[in-house]
């Protein structure tokens, strides 16, 4: 199957839940619905599908028992558990065993085993003492070479096999070998002789030791496998790559716990390794194993290899491994965790570019359009490569669609959509081919696994009815199979449901509550680490089903429920668009919620302090941006118990994330607003203090403007100014100018741009990008990843301009008129930025004339800007150039000075 590995790596930098600015792990980018690890032979777990690491690691190591430990467990007549045996063999200190030998054990396990334990198993315990003595030295001596820089050396004690006296060690091991009576223990001493010669680079002696001390015992258990592994290493050292590879292959075939290392050793030994192994394979098992390794290495299209394995043995366990890898590859293609599209239905990337430049020291310096970085250009290139146009027959309607449209419209369903870059024609062909193979194999194999796999492929093809019928007819007692069948039945039921109503929600709670209710935290066992997971939890079946339901609610017009399936109430602060907020509030106030709504959806109405006040602030802010000060005041009157925008912070004392505590006098989203919001900016520098960036107007005739206000007081002050502004004198001119200032200062361009968009400061971010203006709602499937997808209704700069016009008409002061005109020009500049954002160049970066065309397009934009969006600059230049205000602006505002020339 075709895979764009480079493109995946690049796009994944931006295509993530955290919103385009984090590294990504591809093993966290699909839903893991088909459990790879349900294969019966757990020794193959490392060879399941993974993009994040060379081998699959998402399983407990205890699932693959070490045949060496099992062999020792049998030697001790199963008197010890597997864990106790592993401790005795690999972890117990040599001094503890010597103490046991002397008859005075102190180790609690040895004390428990009793005084007769040593006498009963003396030969084996003496071997372990010798083995523990040798173990620190059992490393090959490192030899520097010209290639040494490229290889990682694991830090250790610095000891290696050459630190031991060669002759004495060989003599001691040979003597112990000859004295041993138990064949297995004798063979273990033979293994030590082979290993010691290998690690001292006496490769010929290692091969001779194997033939003299290991093979004659005629046991093919763990000691033999370990010795064969060492022989293969020695053969590799002698350049006998074909022989080494065949022996590593036998270790791979016969060992449970050494398959990974044997596989790596085969790769290192012979570049044509697996083909050579296939030539030497004589038994059906060997041939199938060789085919598996070939298919594993070259996974572009594994089905031809699987066909050959099928002909040899349809019940082969490793054939199932190939199948589950193929299914996992398909699952990644069909079920990515996010569906983001722009207005054309194409996948979009989120970048950190914006139109606001914060370094200029002019009064209203023109925000620059940033040059594309190399990463932005790369992402744009791959966006063009993978994007596809939206189906012409798709519709943006929601509630008026019937059930069939809800289910079958590929542009509106977040599962199996055709409009994501993971999905191509070859992928669909591969699904068809794999389904044919699986259907054939399930008829021949006695393992129910193939029926489950066939049902899952039917699920991927949206044939939910047939998938369910297959599942219903499976007879098995395998607990892992039963769990997968149960999960898939739930998937078929829920995904095939086009409309979610109250009755179906009751059905969900009755039959599938385990997928939606919170699970108690599972205590880690002693083998698990407590390392921080940078990627969060692996997406699960529950996450997938939440997305499906979020999509269904979205299509049904129940945006509030759709939002709360994936987000918290407090997340509305990041993108407080009015229609969504209203839908969420309607759900919050809905009486007689179903059990599902109460326990699953409503639980995401998290702690935001006073919920009514939270909604009231959002509505009041929107009214302020629309210059409806009376409405805003009515909302803010209901928000006086607002406890602050719900943010979190790291609590160093409690060592956890806790709700942020606002310091007295700090702005919290409602209170402590400076009267500088009525002023004008001296320069654009959002990081500077208000006193550095802003300058007060003369408020002396308006004593109701307080130095510090909450939003209710601010709205009241604006209402009073509006009333005064109805006159036709200098005071009314000043009142209208102040209103215009507030509207401009709280727009995207203003220093106080955070005031009416549920933000705490004006630092750059998605809320302040002009590319969010004048566009359709970006949520086309659901509201997943909401904090990273900004949509706020655009500023209406005409509102500020209209108040400035009233001020201009009422004022007789030429200097004040010049100041007002400049403020009007600044607001008009905002209108230009909105125009520019709505008219991107759309020049393909791969176009050989990209630079030339981009320059021409920029000249066209500049012409439009000067012809249509420089009205008030022109007036300022032609009628007020002689004013002190204009002269001062020319000195402090670089682009105004340039325009005046």
Please give a handful of descriptors for the protein shown.
901 residues; mainly alpha; two-stranded antiparallel sheet; 39 helices; 6 strands
Topology, pairings included?
Blueprint: H1 5-11, H2 67-75, H3 82-91, H4 94-101, H5 108-113, H6 116-120, H7 122-134, H8 166-179, H9 183-199, H10 203-214, H11 222-237, H12 241-254, H13 259-269, H14 273-280, H15 284-297, H16 303-312, H17 317-334, H18 374-386, H19 403-408, H20 425-444, H21 449-460, H22 464-472, H23 479-495, H24 502-511, H25 541-555, H26 559-566, H27 578-589, H28 595-601, H29 611-625, H30 629-636, E1 648-651, E2 656-659, E3 673-674, E4 680-681, H31 690-693, E5 694-695, E6 708-709, H32 711-724, H33 730-745, H34 797-810, H35 814-838, H36 850-868, H37 871-879, H38 884-892, H39 894-900
Antiparallel strand pairs: 1-2, 3-6, 4-5
Note down, in words, how this protein is organized.
This protein is mostly helical and 901 residues long. The protein is built from 39 helices and six strands. The protein has a two-stranded antiparallel ribbon with strand order 1-2. A two-stranded antiparallel sheet has the order 3-6. A two-stranded antiparallel ribbon has the order 4-5. Helix 15 packs antiparallel against helix 16, helix 26 packs across helix 27 and helix 35 packs antiparallel against helix 37. The two termini are 63 Å apart. The N terminus is likely disordered. This is Gliding motility protein. It comes from Chryseobacterium profundimaris.
Going by helix content, strand content and strand pairing, the class is mainly alpha
Beta-strand residue percentage: under 5%
Assembly status? single chain
Distance, first to last CA: 63 Å
Helical content stands at 40-55%
Judging from the principal axes of the Cα atoms, what is the shape? elongated
Please tell me how large the radius of gyration is.
36 Å
Signal peptide: 1-22
Region (Disordered): 346-368, 390-410
Protein name: Gliding motility protein
Biased composition (Polar residues): 346-359
